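Morning run. Coffee first, then this:
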Amino acid sequence: MIDLEVRLGRPLIWLSPAWAALCGAAASGRLALSGQAALTLLLTLLLADAAWGFLWKLAAERPPADNRPSTAGIRLAALPYTVPGSPSQRAFERLGEFLAWWREGFWPRHGSALIVALPLTAALAAILGRRVVILTSAALAMVALAFLLRRRGASPLALQAILGMGLAWLAGHIALGPLGWPSLFLAALYTGTYRAWLALAEGKRPLILLNGSQVAVVALLVALRQPIAAGLVGLSLLPQMLLQPYLRRGGMEAWYLRRTQVFLMASTMAAALAIGY
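And here it is:
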């Protein structure tokens, strides 16, 4: 069964794709005290957090570094007209490594879960409508690209932020109503903020991106003539900035994220409610 506690590799508890989807739903202006709206929202949260999150977790699987050359599990016939050591021959060898890992490492552990996860993800998206199906296709493409990047030793934080914040926000919005450009801009800006948070969790300090993206949200809300929401977002940024000097001590990133997550959550919801209502 799919583990419903799966998250997109984040170190936090509350700031999640589910929260991003909830903010997107609020930004749509279509949240209502009705059974249909509640069911749609619940299915969207399951899709964005549990289903997409589970597939992201599977994409994190990769062959151990000391076991990658092993292709004994699958022997592929040599390609005709290829020179040993040529790019085509190396690509063919990597394909053999991947197939061996898939059969001997990935499939025995996760094959049954994948068989359940993919149809369930497709079913949830189909229930929520054509636009969510298109968005889910984009999410699956992100997962596949992240898998390829991880196999090359890269850390796909940007893709993780897009999936965990941007696409989740959009899913919450379009599941309930048509998408407008203010919500799209907010999703993009908070994706930048979330990208900075993920980098902080890895010991980096992208404070320009963290602060700048939220300042841009304030500017957007001012342009939309939402001064109260702009003030609330600005106030939520203030304690985040006041605590940033502690990051210079080193090893304080997790402490910082735990102390400031509530302010970022308040910021996202205030901005969403401002453009939705």
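Residues 135 and 275 are 22 Å apart (CA to CA). Good start to the day.
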